[in-house]
Amino acid sequence: MTADPTSSPPPGWVRTSRDGAVLTVTLDRPDQLNAQTPDTWSALADVGASLDDDVRVVVLRGSGRSFSAGLDRSMFDTGSSAGGGLGELGRLPVEEARERIRGYQAGFRWLRSPGVVSVAAVQGHAVGAGAQLALACDLRVFTDDAQLRLPEVTLGLVPDLTGTSTLVELVGYARALELCLTGRAVGAAEAQAIGLATAVVPRAELDDAVADLTAALLAPPVGASRATAALVRSAVRNDAGAQDAAERAAQVQRLHEIVSGC
Hints:
This protein is α/β, with parallel strands linked by helices. It has helices spanning 38-49, 86-91, 94-109, 129-136, 163-171, 173-182, 188-194, 206-218, 222-235, 240-260, and strands spanning 14-19, 22-27, 57-62, 117-122, 125-127, 139-143, 147-149, 185-187, 199-201. Helix content is 44%, strand content 16%. Strands 1-2-3-4-6-9 form a six-stranded mixed sheet, with helices on both faces. Strands 5-7-8 form a three-stranded mixed sheet.
């Protein structure tokens, strides 16, 4: 998948490009600070569904001066019953509304698919849906001017795009609760200190930092890399006994593959 700079905006303003084992996904709506709509989430879900086994790293970016300022303002018209906005969603039957949100979440959850490691390159603002999109990735590289914020509660809403589970994994229950209930901004330095940011760099160095991290992620043998990523992910929810068993099984599988030359 490649981006044609002369073409009309793609559905959801999501562009992709491929360089070997690296797939770059770019929110490409810089004039609106990469504000998101249901079309954005559908386009992201389509990217996830089209992944092939040769992709090892997914880099998620936002074009322009911000990663993503969150929902498109048009979606906040609660008086409207059309256009995929909050008003339409609030008027649907409960089960239908829940299924609609499940579809939206699919645009985020695939970023932790087995076999790939996802990296968010975050500059400027990552707000609301933008923050949750960054949180959906495995790793995050922030510019030193980046800010992440989850303001949903201040709007009478809740974070519903997979953000709560990943936030608790990263920063723990108490800090996640504080960030979600206050909706305050987290700057780059604090994000790194509490585990939200893997690295913080000057804006001019973002591309190089992401390229260096991507190269490091691709350096280990693919089988060992994927097996290790799976172990780390399972450790979040497994108890000690289950995780020990997972490590044993993975190691034996690796040794068999090495001995057999696979």
